[in-house]
Q: What sequence folds into this?
């Protein structure tokens, strides 16, 4: 009895309804072109900041999907260091953060290099440098030799979504996958990205880390579709927002036949949402650049600069305003000093004070008249 797609003969002869796919694919290609056009009009510094924002979201959210929550500031610092984007302190970054960062940077910045078993094993080694996944010892940098159920959910409440390819067939299935991935074909490169993601997830070749590696492969192929190292959106961020539907789509496709139409429709819509979100990200980056250009000759201290940058750089958390107590904590200063700093920024028209009852909220005076974070709600 056939239960999963990989149990079918010639299961990788994927097909889809081109008429259903073509419309949304056309919209995506238009959005990609429009955003890349906007990016090309930016200066080098803003291009680098855009890349930093997108890659940071990618690293944070590909880990969140697996239930691992990384320190955003350390992720950002690690990426900035490795790309030479900012002069950052050489603080110690945990190996689990460095590992995901190294994998994502290799996938997106070296996207034109062939994807090989050796490269995938290197990514796996980056993710599991200690040889352990949590408290469990795993085989690192080698394909699995045990059977695999693909599950999600907390320990003790796991849900089995499907069984992966049998261990004895992993090597040959991966050879077939890598050969297809590295060959040129007439399949649109965006479509190829989502098919590759599905194909790899179905094989699930490693003891752990398959989801993160599958999304790195997805990012790599999307970079090929744009032929640029510049990142201006985060697929993992959008997938995390829709992760319940993401798991459902993978599960349903595993139990279907070779027709991936429904799966591709969902992923293309998810990608379109990621591109639309990136337009909003770009608005914030442009607003920040214009803000500091307007106030380039205004004298403020490091605490004040740090606080304003914090608001701009953490818009995705929907913070949106500062209060005296948070400002003091952020800058490790007294509340009296915090209050003087904030009032000074109000006098200089950099912040506006809003009375919220018992407390005062301090918000950025946006040059482009956007309200952080309301634009993202």
A:
């Amino acid at each position: 009895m056939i239960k999963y797609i990989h149990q079918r003969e010639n299961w990788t002869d994927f097909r889809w309804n081109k008429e259903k796919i073509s419309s949304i694919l056309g919209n995506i290609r238009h959005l990609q072109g429009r955003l890349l056009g906007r990016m090309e009009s930016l200066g080098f510094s803003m291009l680098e900041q855009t890349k930093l924002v997108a890659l940071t979201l990618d690293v944070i959210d590909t880990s969140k999907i697996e239930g691992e929550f990384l320190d955003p500031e350390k992720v950002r610092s690690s990426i900035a260091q490795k790309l030479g984007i900012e002069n950052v302190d050489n603080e110690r970054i945990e190996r689990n953060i460095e590992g995901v960062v190294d994998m994502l940077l290799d996938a997106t910045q070296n996207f034109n290099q062939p994807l090989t078993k050796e490269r995938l094993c290197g990514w796996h080694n980056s993710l599991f440098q200690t040889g352990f996944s949590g408290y469990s010892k795993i085989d690192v940098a080698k394909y699995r030799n045990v059977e695999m159920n693909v599950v999600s959910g907390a320990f003790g409440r796991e849900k089995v979504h499907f069984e992966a390819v049998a261990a004895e067939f992993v090597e040959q299935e991966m050879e077939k996958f890598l050969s297809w991935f590295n060959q040129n074909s007439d399949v649109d490169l965006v479509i190829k990205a989502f098919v590759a993601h599905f194909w790899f997830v179905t094989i699930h070749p490693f003891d752990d880390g398959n989801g993160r590696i599958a999304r790195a492969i997805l990012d790599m192929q999307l970079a090929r579709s744009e032929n640029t190292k510049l990142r201006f959106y985060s697929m993992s961020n959008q997938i995390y927002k829709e992760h319940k539907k993401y798991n459902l789509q993978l599960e349903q496709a595993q139990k279907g036949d070779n027709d991936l139409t429904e799966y591709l429709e969902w992923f293309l819509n998810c990608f379109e949402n990621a591109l639309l979100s990136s337009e909003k990200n770009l608005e914030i980056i442009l607003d920040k650049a214009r803000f500091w250009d307007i106030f380039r000759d205004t004298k403020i201290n490091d605490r004040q600069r740090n606080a304003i940058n914090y608001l701009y750089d953490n818009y995705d958390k929907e913070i949106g305003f500062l209060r005296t107590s948070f400002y003091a904590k952020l800058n490790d200063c007294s509340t009296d000093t915090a209050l003087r700093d904030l009032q000074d920024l109000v006098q200089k028209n950099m912040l506006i004070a809003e009375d919220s009852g018992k407390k005062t909220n301090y918000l950025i005076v946006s040059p482009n008249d956007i309200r952080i974070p309301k634009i993202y709600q």
Remarks:
- Residues 372-377 have pLDDT under 50 and may be disordered.
- The chain has two domains: 5-283, 302-376.
- Residues 302-376 form a domain with the Arc Repressor Mutant, subunit A fold (CATH 1.10.10.10).
- The two ends are 47 Å apart (CA to CA).
